Backbone:
């Protein structure tokens, strides 16, 4: 039944099939790739669609999988299965012929490993995208340069002018040469300075001030939240795709911690996705030409150029 459906759809025209403009297809939970509906994915040639030359893929789905296909996905390389049209329609220059439809249908029906067909477990293409966080480390200073930077920041300029003046006046009472490596200690001194001139600030306004007076410093203490937990530095945030068949913790210990020992995983941001690198699975290595052959061609071309130059000079 599935083979008949494939032939029927291909006979109706490739425009009726789904297309994906990627050689490395990435699918996220919106498309349940691991569901029992996915049976096969076939890569076809370019220029099969009107007014687009993108690479196209035939996604074969069914709700009547045979037992041998359950939990499995078949990749079919049909990029060479096409014929040139006598007259192109925009970017559509290729089309399927009966023989090509027959080959694709046969490869699908055989469900066997070959040069043009590969079989995989669904999980072989799956990965969990983890968010790797690193702690925020800042130093603080009330130097004239940093105060000037604070005054020019967008968040600070939105404060009331009278409040801005009182904040700056209090900051100038602190030692401009001292560099703080601990945020809590710095904030305590800020609050003492503001209290001395009767300035009261909200938590958000205090954050504006210490943010504008800070710089990243790997030697500084880790900034922690009200619960004593380290805060993440958004500029150091990174992502890793962990194969679905691999344990996240083991991967993290092996691939991440040796390079950044202070990193941790934000499990709340973990997502599951699928990636199908068609080229990797059907790649055929083509050895480079021998150096002797390349040298011979270069000498031949050099000789031709010199002969032309001699003609020009001689003329």
Residues:
């Amino acid at each position: 039944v599935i083979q008949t459906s494939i032939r029927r759809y291909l006979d109706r025209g490739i425009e009726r099939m789904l297309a994906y403009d990627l050689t490395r297809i990435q699918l996220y939970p919106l498309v349940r790739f691991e569901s029992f509906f996915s049976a096969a994915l076939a890569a076809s040639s370019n220029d099969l669609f009107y007014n687009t030359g993108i690479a196209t893929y035939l996604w074969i789905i069914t709700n009547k999988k045979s037992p041998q296909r359950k939990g499995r996905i078949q990749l079919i390389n049909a990029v060479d299965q096409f014929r040139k049209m006598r007259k192109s329609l925009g970017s559509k220059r290729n089309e399927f012929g009966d023989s090509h439809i027959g080959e694709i249908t046969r490869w699908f029906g055989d469900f066997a490993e070959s040069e043009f067909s590969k079989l995989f477990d669904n999980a072989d293409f799956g990965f969990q995208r983890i968010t790797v966080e690193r702690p925020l480390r800042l130093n603080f200073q009330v130097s004239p340069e940093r105060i000037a930077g604070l005054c020019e920041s967008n968040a600070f300029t939105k404060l009331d002018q009278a409040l801005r003046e009182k904040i700056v006046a209090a900051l100038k009472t602190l030692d401009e040469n001292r560099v703080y490596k601990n945020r809590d200690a710095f904030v305590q001194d800020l609050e003492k300075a503001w209290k001395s001139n009767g300035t009261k600030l909200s938590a958000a306004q205090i954050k504006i001030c210490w943010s504008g007076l800070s710089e990243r410093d790997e030697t500084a203490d880790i900034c922690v939240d009200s619960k004593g937990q380290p805060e993440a530095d958004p500029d150091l945030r990174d992502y890793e795709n962990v194969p679905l068949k691999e344990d996240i913790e083991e991967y993290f210990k092996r691939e991440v911690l040796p390079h950044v020992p202070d990193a941790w995983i934000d499990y709340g941001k973990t997502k599951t996705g699928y990636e199908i690198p068609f080229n990797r699975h059907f790649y055929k290595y083509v050895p480079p030409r021998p150096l002797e052959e390349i040298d011979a061609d270069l000498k031949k071309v050099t000789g031709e150029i010199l002969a032309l130059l001699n003609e020009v000079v001689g003329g």
